[in-house]
Every structure is written in C-alpha cells, then in structure tokens.
Design a protein that fits this description.
globular, 6 helices, mainly alpha
C-alpha cells in the first residue's frame, strides 16, 4: 500500500465521499434551476430556492446511502438534514445571490453561481450533517 494511502483517516474518506455527493448535487441544483428559470423567466431567486431544496433532498438521500449510512426514520432524518444544513445553505444562497446580482457572467449563466455557492457551504454542511444528522 502506498505511504500516502495509509495516512488517510476515516473522517477524510467520509469528507471526500461527502464532497463527491456535493459535486453530484450541484448538477441537480443547476438542472432544476435551469428548468425553473425556463418556467419562470427572470425569477433567479425563487428558482434558486426550488433548486436548492431539490439538491438538498438529493444530497440527503445520497449521503444516507453512500457517505454516512442509513438508519432511523427517513422523514425525520430528511427534515433534520435540511435544518442542520441551514448555515451552509444560507452561505450557498448568499454567494449565489451576490454573484447573480453583480457579475454579468453569473447572471447570464446562473449555474456558475450555483457552483460557487455550493463550495461556500461545503464544510459547514459536512460538519452539520456529521454531527447532527448522521451521528457516527
């Protein structure tokens, strides 16, 4: 086994899985936002709330099955996941909103702002999910 592989801790592996799930949910977020904007042209902020909820729900499901493991009541765990990720979600939405408002590229291509917002909330969401939703 390579020397670097033996230094990877279980929490590092868990964070990497969480980040992979996060990368997948960026596509869910951007796709749902694109659909929402097609149905509600110019409604960048309302569309983003819809897309965030879809992405957060997909993230909960994937993290339950891939990152942390399942257990407990699904509905209660999903609700805890959404509440626990409010800090990261607010950071995510704030970065998105500022970029869409101030950066012409992000206004023309909102999925770019979705990606930046997702990065802003990554660490906060991991810590909240690990500590409050999927306890080790």
């Amino acid at each position: 086994m390579p020397a670097t592989a033996s230094r990877i801790t279980p929490i590092t592996c868990q964070f990497l899985r969480f980040a992979c799930v996060g990368a997948l949910t960026v596509f869910v977020d951007a796709g749902v936002l694109t659909l929402a904007l097609a149905m509600l042209p110019g409604r960048f902020y309302v569309g983003r709330i819809v897309s965030y909820l879809a992405a957060a729900s997909a993230g909960w499901w994937l993290n339950r099955h891939f990152t942390f493991g399942g257990g407990g009541t699904k509905l209660r765990q999903w609700a805890r996941y959404l509440v626990a990720n409010l800090g990261g979600g607010l950071a995510n939405y704030a970065v998105y909103a500022v970029l869409v408002a101030l950066v012409p590229l992000c206004r023309a291509y909102p999925p770019v702002a979705v990606g930046a917002g997702s990065l802003a909330g990554l660490a906060l969401n991991f810590l909240a999910a690990r500590r409050f939703v999927f306890r080790p």
